[in-house]
Amino acid sequence: MLGRLNHVAIAVPDLAAASAGYRDMLGARVSAPQKLPDHGVTVVFVDLGNTKVELLEPLGEASPIASFLERSPTGGMHHVCYEVDDIIAARDRLIAQGARVLGGGEPRTGAHGRPVLFLHPKDFQGTLVELEQA
Ligand code: CO
């Protein structure tokens, strides 16, 4: 069911500083910032060739990463995203095995324009897992 690692997402308090660190200190290719109001984040993509890092900064009042940054003010790893061929089949299989799918279980359009779902961190070793339709 599980395919490749699509991205690792890191919540950051200062997107410009984080982008500069990846670009200038690590020598990575970083995108321009992209505002995603539906998701409450501004995102910068770090292109690693085989996968990506997404740097996430809160956008707006009700950002889903605001409480994370309250607990971890310097930032930290927020979630990992794995690709699946069929997100509905993946969801149904997970629910049948007792996993908790967040947000009512209906896929939403993610940062790359594809359907995504999030799985409860308590079911996956304390790590928030995003599934993205490949
Ligand atoms: Co993500």
Give a quick rundown of the structure:
It contains 3 helices and 9 strands; from the N terminus they run E-H-E-E-E-E-H-E-H-E-E-E. The chain is an alpha+beta fold. The protein has one domain: 2,3-Dihydroxybiphenyl 1,2-Dioxygenase, domain 1.
Question: What attributes characterize this protein structure?
Answer:
134 residues; alpha+beta; 2,3-Dihydroxybiphenyl 1,2-Dioxygenase, domain 1; nine-stranded mixed β-sheet; 3 helices; 9 strands; binds cobalt (II) ion
How would you characterize the overall build of this protein?
- With 134 residues, this protein is of the alpha+beta class.
- The protein has a single domain (2-133), classed as 2,3-Dihydroxybiphenyl 1,2-Dioxygenase, domain 1, CATH 3.10.180.10.
- 20% of the residues lie in helices and 38% in strands.
- It has helices spanning 15-25, 66-71, 87-96; strands at 2-11, 29-30, 34-36, 41-47, 52-58, 76-84, 108-109, 115-119, 128-133.
- Strands 1, 2, 3, 4, 5, 6, 7, 8 and 9 form a nine-stranded mixed beta sheet that branches.
- A hairpin with a 4-residue loop joins strand 3 and strand 4.
- It is globular, with a radius of gyration of 15 Å.
- 25% of the residues are buried.
- Bound molecules: cobalt (II) ion.
- Cobalt (II) ion (CO) binds at residues 7, 9, 54, 79, 81, 130.
Spans of 5+ residues with little confidence (pLDDT < 50)?
none
Q: Using the 3D structure, state the CATH architecture.
A: Roll
The H/E string reads: EHEEEEHEHEEE
Number of helices: 3
| N-C termini distance | 11 Å
